[in-house]
Amino acid sequence: RAFNDQRATLVVPKPVSASQRQSIDSRRVFDRLGEASHRLNVGYRDDELNLFVPTDPIREGGFALFSPDTRIPNDLWVHANSTNSGVLFSEYVHTRQAFATDNEMDWIVEAMDGYYSAALAREVGLEGSNFSDEVRADARAWEGTDLTDPSHNFSADYDKGARVLAALDAKIRRATDGERTLEHVWARMNAHDSTDTVGSESAIGYETFVEIVERVAGQSFEAWLERSLETAELPEVPENRSLYTVEDDPIDLDGDGLSMAAERDADTDPTETDTDGDGLGDGAELTNGTDPATADTDGDGLDDDVERAGPTNATVADTDGDSLGDRRELELGTRHSRILTATLSATGVSWNSERTRRSQTLTTMASMTAVS
What we know:
Strand content: 5-15%
Mean pLDDT: 78
CATH architecture of the domain at 1-98: 2-Layer Sandwich
Order of helices and strands: EEHHEEEHHHHHHHHHHHHH
């Protein structure tokens, strides 16, 4: 299949039983490769991409097939049982790395694998993927590892390296108001000299990488990179996952009725149906006029779902306009409050003595809001 000036060929080696061949969903594989090709705006693509899909007894997982003298593979294999996982994206990432690095920068090859395979899995809605967990997972086991030290354990690249890149991507997006991302760094690395071979004098070194990041971000992150890569100070990965989305992405990952682009605009989590945890879905909140990123839109002490179920207005702190906030009226048991009258009427609470009235009001309010 052809996509984005690239032709992909799926190869199923023989011998493969009819049932094994049937289990390989070629359409799904091509669709996901096409999505990855489209979403990675990093420049280089080989005209031809060959994907081999072996079955047992070949081990599960995958591998990008590098030629002896370049870091630009156009062949990869992914076990049939791994084609519906992030492994497909993991190996595809390597086919877009048209740069060579020196020993201090070798870590970035697999760090990109770790970060972007998680990002692509999230963006296409791959079942079971958890972007935030994956870019944080196991990083603490390597927190004291200096990634620029050629003798370090390369397993740290997938974990600590991926975390550093996730945090760096966030810093670049914030510094440029979302105009640029880590992909711009990757694209410049690809354009640095796509003919460089491993170990060549013009391969990308640490200083060159720092300079590329500075040109992309418009400011220097050299001190931050040094701490993040060389010391035990692990960088923080922002919880706000909408930061990592693109402006015009039409996919609705969490099924809340909002595309990733709309979630970005609303500052909601594209992977959570109910970002603020108030019991109302993000899409429903936007439709109803409440803030999907804030559990209590009007700040009156009553969560939006409580107000939506009762007589008060979730977008007005003082529904009846008597200068007392809605929750405060419920706490005080104000006799003339239309809010309280409607609330007590709806719940069957009658007016008795002052003490009884206050007690019943507070009990009713507490049951509605689950707060003490």
